[in-house]
Amino acid sequence: MDFIESKIHLINDQISSSFQKTNEIGVLAGLSGIALFNFHYSRVFNKETTIGSAILEKCILKINEGYSKPTYCNGIVGFAWVINYLIKENFIDDSNNEVLYEIDDYNHEWIDFSIKDNNFDFFHGTIGYLNYSIDRYNSLTNSENLEKIEKSVTLLLNYLSELLPEIELYPNGLKKYIIKMGFENNVFFGSAHGISNIIFILNKISTIPKFNSEAQLLSDQYITYLLKYKNDKNSDISLFPNFLSKKGVVKYESALSWCSGDLGIGINLLNTAVRYNHNENYKLTGIEILEHASQRSSLDKTSLKLDCLCHGYFGAYKIFSDAYKITQNENFLKASNYWLDLGIKNLTINNDSDLTILNGLSGIGLSLLDHIDSKKLNWGECLFL
After folding, report:
1. 259 a known binding residue?
2. Which run of H or of E encompasses 268?
3. Which among 82, 183, 309, 320 could disulfide-bond with 363, CB atoms 3.0 to 4.6 Å apart, if both were Cys?
4. CB contact at 8 A, 101 and 84
5. According to the UniProt entry, where is the signal peptide (predicted)?
6. What are the distances in angstroms from CA 313 to CA 102, 179, 320, 375?
7. How far apart are CA 110 and CA 130, in angstroms?
């Protein structure tokens, strides 16, 4: 048996025996994301397994017993995203839509609340909720449901239009808003909590014809703001800071990670250019950022100490691997192999292992399934990858 395949089987065995210990149900940090791994595992290895379905049933049982966390990362909307994804990818049949119809109205309420609360976070705010809604938009036919999503999109576009000029004046601006897109009201740039995820959701919104021009224009404006902080002459570690503090401090020391650093920003620009806006300049900028990131291999220049997907070795592997598949750039292949080898060497699988996509074995397992399967696996959509 191939060494990497053996690791994937061990991950699945650990998940099968331990998933009951996980309390949350969201896609990134909960049970439904763990189920996502098992469904892909079963398909890649052509194995019949009931674990994925058992995990989803546990999620439904928890909701029926009063589980109430709404967020994409941890909660009910993240669970709904997984169900919608599994239907779209033909893992489960569309009779499961009945579960989603009950969650859709709940999700609209949280979109409205989080927008009015100025919470534009991907994990725990508007962008996560709306990511699910936009994916649902393409499969819905009921005009009332479509209109609700369009109302939420309109609300978000209006708020983001008003937010941009205040962010541009930061830290002297933001008198009107206390933004919840990061911590302590800092302006973050990365994919988990910052400007990068705003850009991605605007490009997803642009796939809805009536919002195409407005969303693209606003996306261009946010990209212009983002690139203003790209420091090509900087001698520090990264091209982008992790955040701009309320004191105006900018430190170009972001980790080599999906969540907060150059990697997430670079692959975001590359993916949005390839999938949505087809802007060659954005594509080239994304490649340039990733090429710079590919030269960072010593651990003191990466701030990576873990084997996880979010901010660890396997996240770097996944992003460089995706970039190579798009561009055939040999620097990305070399970097992906480097981080894969380091991840495998440091991989620990035991009863104390986190099982989730974001910080644990499911994310690592899905990345390894990418490595051994010649077909494109679309699970990275849950992280805007």
Report:
1. yes
2. helix 262-272
3. 309
4. no
5. none
6. 38, 31, 11, 23
7. 10
Residue 42 three-state SS: helix
Element (H, E) at 131: helix 126-137
* Spatial distance between the Cα atoms of 180 and 117, rounded to a whole number of angstroms: 8
Domains of the chain: 3-383 (1.50.10.20)
Phi/psi for 307 (5° steps) reads: -100, 20
- Asked if residues 377 and 40 have their Cβ atoms less than 8 Å apart, the reply is yes
| Lookup: tokens for 372 | 């051994």
> Which of 258, 338, 346, 260 lies closest to 306, judged by CA?
346
pLDDT tens digits, one per residue of 118-163: 888 899 999 999 999 999 988 877 778 889 899 999 999 998 998 8
Neighbours of 333 (CB within 10 A): 17
Query: pLDDT tens digit string along 253-312?
Result: 888 888 888 999 999 999 999 999 889 999 999 999 999 999 888 777 787 777 888 888
Q: What stretch of H or E contains 243?
A: strand 243-244
pLDDT at 183 over 80: no
Write the Ramachandran bin of 51: left for phi over 0, alpha for psi from -120 to 50, otherwise beta: alpha
* Residue given tokens 């990511």 in the structure block: 131
CB burial string 29-40: b at 16+ within 10 A, e below:
bbbbbbbbbbbb
Which residues make beta-bridge pairs with 250? Answer: 244
pLDDT of the residue at 94? 83
CB-count exposure of residue 287 (10 Å: 0-12, 13-18, 19+) = buried
pLDDT band at 98 (very low <50, low <70, confident <90, very high): confident
* 371 carries a ligand binding annotation: no
Structure-token pair, residue 235: 């001698």
**pLDDT at residue 250 in the model:** 78
List all residues 6 or more positions away from 157 whose beta carbon is below 8 Å from its beta carbon: 205, 211, 214, 215, 218
Q: Could you tell me which residues are beta bridge partners of residue 188?
A: 243
Is position 308 annotated in a ligand binding site? no
